[in-house]
Give the backbone structure.
Amino acid sequence: MSEFSLVIKNARINDTTISDIGINNGKIEKIGKLNNGKTYIDANKHYVINGFVNSHCHLDKSNLLDKMTEDHLGKTLEENRLLLKKLKSSYSESDIEKRATDTIEKMLSKGITAIRTQVDVDPTAGVVPIKSLLKLREKYKDRVYIQIAAFPQEGVVDEAKRDLMERAMELGADVVGGLPLVEAKGNEKRHLEILFELAKKYNKNLDIQVDETNDPRMAILPEVIKKTKEENFNGRVTVTHAIALSRLPTEKAKEIIEQMKALRINVIVTPSANMITRFAEVSDLWIRPSNSITRVTELYDNGINVALGTDNVRDIFYPFGNCSMIRELHMLVSATRMTTRDYIDAAISMATTNGAKLLGLNYGIEEGRQADIIITDGTSKLDILNSDETIPCVIKNGNILFLDKNRLERGSN
């Protein structure tokens, strides 16, 4: 009788080590020289890493491109929000499930084993998107871990909108999402207050989209930091985007990053969607129609947990995307010039173990860790970034979801 249910032979687990990985009961049980298991895969010295974690996406909005016309493309962020409201008025559970299912299947083929999705909760669609994604979370529970954040796309200050968020949490949302900039001017702080109230009431973590514009005068991140400290929510708050940080004077940015580190605030970056976001062009020293990405390298250098997401996929806000984290990694390292060996390693971690930490998953290619594993096309971290975006082998909870032996036998691309 074999000692392991699955053994991955000849796995490259770091730049200098080729070893075997023995898996039982959904966990990595042993790393070393092993006999073949009941089932075995020869990794042929390819890099073996944890599955990709897509820490921020919008499954309920994905593939809305199929409902759009050519004149809907190339709009500003605010114009896109108005268009979204129009398209959402015809939402149905079956429609959302069909579009989201297609996206999830593509993510699986790209090696994504865990997802946090922000799901709209607002008067236009009600809780229909939440109900749809709760069904899919259950349907896919053995193939991909899905965490749902209730996302107040149209705000939360109005009582009716807050009631909808309450309903979403009661239905089973995992995280309280937020979007302060959609509120009427002056209500952004109240938006944050309500988010923290909800998070405390339902004992949930927070994931708040902040500062999607690179205009530092509109930055709400300092208020998030202040509220996190007041509510003693250390380690339980994530901010997505935080782009205005890139435009602040360096010394001021350093102060903010130090405060974030002390409060263990996580950051999620969504490079492609961040770079494409467009604003109305006005005659103003601070406002540019183009956008940027937050200070990723400075955040990493200061010990902030930075994770990665695809954000929108083929929808109003980002009409491109093929669900690939490798594509996002390429945009990240290119736009932020993360070209040293240390930063390339860091980028891979942002797409895997850092995201897993954010979602509460026990990732790492180490004994005792969760066996959510991909065998890549590469024999180095740089190879991974340059490789084909469809992963040769995807393993979830120790079970093989996808295996292309021919690609592994051919060696690295």
Q: What stands out?
A: The radius of gyration is 21 Å. The chain is about 35% helix and 20% strand.
